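Exercise 7. Predict the joint structure of the components listed below.
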Amino acid sequence: VSERSAQPLSGIRVVDLTHDWAGPHAARVVADYGAEVIKIEYPKRLDGMRGAYLDRIDKHPRWWQINRNKKSITLDFHRPDHVEACKALVKVSDLVLENSRPGVLEGFGLGYETLRQVRPDIIMVSMSAHGGSGPYRQYAGYGGAIEATSGVQSLTAYGRGEDAMRIREVDVTNGIMGACAIMTALIHRQATGEGQWIDLSETEACTWLIGEHLLEFTANRGAQTLPLGNRHPVHAPQGCYPCRGKDRWLAITVRSDSEWRDFCATAGHPEWSADDRFATVKGRQAHHDEIDRLIASWTREQDAREAMITLQARGVAAGLVADAEDIANDPHLSSRGWESRPDSGEHGRSPGFPFRFQTEGAARYRRRGPDLGADNNAILRELLGLPATVIPPLDPEHLGTAFDRE
Amino acid sequence: LRVIELGGGIAGSYCTKLMAGFGADVIKVEPWPAGDKLRQSEPFIDGASGPENSIPHLWYNTGKRSVVLNLDSKRELDWLKGIIRRADVVVDGFAPGKLAEIGLGFDVLKSVRRDIILTSITPFGQSGPNKDYEAEEITLYAMSGLMYATGHPDREPLAAGPAICQLSAGMKAYIATLMAVYRRKQAAGAEWIDVSVHEAALDNFEIAVAEHMELGKKAKRANDEHALVPWRIFPCRDGHAAIIGGPIRHWLKAAEIFEEPELTSTKYAHMADRIRQRADVRALMAPWLSRHDKKDIFHAGQKRKMAWGYLATLADVVGSPQHRARGFLPEVHHPDHGHQIMLGAPFRPSRSPWRQQRAPQLGEHTSEVLQELLGLSPAEIGAAKEGALS
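Solution:
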């Protein structure tokens, strides 16, 4: 197996026209596994993840993370030569990923029908808020609205009638669905030679997170199990319990009568399992509040991580409510070599890859998210052979951020 | 593409549901006699338990063929190997080591089929001190950092309603498996993929972890207050509207909608001003919001190019005119339950369209698959169907 083929998507070139989080995450997943992703940035309105301040556009760890392994070129589609440069790039690429409002690319002469004239087997994946058809096709969206409108947000709350809360993080899960679309199209092209257009509605992709709950609602005529706060629809007890220290918590689920006895013995309170009221799951559901108070009286004296280890040794599903610091120092993750650092030698620790192949080197962290226009010369001049005049000026008076007014 | 699903679980079932919908022949091998554990999962249709009635089963197993086998029987294990010989992918939802224990470890699978792709999905991966940890969705949501940042700062961290960690892992298993399939064409050879639900979910927290590693920041529960303002749901006359201050360049013009001149004054002109005066912005928007309904607010904001939304109940989702126009809530027919409303494709490929199908009945395709792939005679299978298996 050659070095070239260690990365499953080696040889695939992606033109990435997306911005913010969901689209860029989709592109990053394929970049991690070998695709050459060329991010096209609009200098007059930079990606929101580059922030509001021009002196810091290349300096955000979030940028380095979300856009790692990508190249950056700058084009302004109001310039005809830049529209042509984009077409020239598409001609030597496999896939175009975009998350503009439907119709925007067509307006620049870069819609799917045009691009397939340029390259007949091109794949285009369009990620929009509500999809490319229907009465809301022109509507915009960010995660904060899409999560609400998709129905997802209504199922998370401390209890019935309490405020619906956001979960973490539908921009990313929508990005992952975008990567699913990319792979679906690449497999189809490998089998048939055909490119295609994929219409991804982020609202629909988000609603896919609650498919079973919608089926419950429609099949059982309005029935709805969620929201349940931290409780489980079947098992009891389940909850999030305070531990020693500030803002330290342990999530515990007891899934059977025998686990309940093991839990009580481990906590040093066999008398709880001797209480007939708590002997069955029905009883534990009925007395959940009281059981929560008992468990909290024990956990408050415990170190969260040690209690997790002790309970897991007895087969009880207990999990530390990890904060970012816990994760950065997690012994399990560290034994799996999860954290990664760029081959480029640039400063930077980074969260690792989302899945692993047995083949060594399938995922690589070559470089962190690129500086603006870092690859203008390599792509526009060397790859596409365009004249020097195509490279736009990138000094501050020619730049604008997503935070500027119009 | 032929895919064999073993061991069940939400993540594996979700992965193969996507594969089946986009055209793969997914054979779900269920243990004899009761079938996949998902079939015993609540809630049930009309509250009546039974292997065809579990709503999670009816959702997660659409488009698959169901084959029931007794893997304690040497003969049936050999049948399974024969099926795997004619397959491309095995999606394994068993705990680490369990597949090898059954006699189907990666080395065995490779000897059965030289270029097999094995995708193993476990809560914490195939290695490391936590690999045998027990986990429910809440355990994984807690340990991947997501839960610490969900909820109210003065209350305990809050679990997610949806099974977001397992669903993230299921989608990643789909991506990883297709990457391996893609690569196999160029470099024939077997591949073993290790999907840890924990690590798959950690991707959802990537910014928070990156910012901690580089800047020492620690993302906290914030009662959903976003870094940008406004950027959350707010109460309105009949529920909640999602008032998003973006695209930021359109805000000042759009904010006239609130009929509150102060809100469009220079005092709140820049996002930095609004972030600094978060409570004031909220207070200035509140009177207009309290006089209007959520869907009207959604449309009014969108007319002004703002990316607004509203807090949809499940009834709102089912009634959405957008979903109706796009055919996102199609019906499928199930022999036991009649017509059921399902979700249409999660994305719409123009050339490799989604196949809308129902979940299989327990063992519905056992004979079909054994005849088709192994050439077994109906008599041999008949004996199996009698339960005279071992």
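Discussion. The longest strand of chain A covers residues 36-41.
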